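Quick check before the chapter quiz. The format below is the same one you will see on the exam, so make sure you can read both the input and the output lines.
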Amino acid sequence: MATSLNNLARLSQGQGKYAEAEVLFKRALTTREQALGPEHPFVATVCENMADLYSQIGKKDEAEKLQARARKIRSKR
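Here is the expected output.
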């Protein structure tokens, strides 16, 4: 389910539906964290995708936090 949410979020982002994309990314992130744990590489993927959205819409601080989280997760693998 999280993969579908992530994919729908990317699609929404591509269509310029940024608010919808943000909601979907948040749901994907929560779902993956609950199913796989907060340090799983798939969680990092959603963080990276959501950071891309935030960069695109000018939420630079949030984007940087998510990128840092993704890097931390990936450095543990």
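If your answer matched, good. The radius of gyration is 12 Å.
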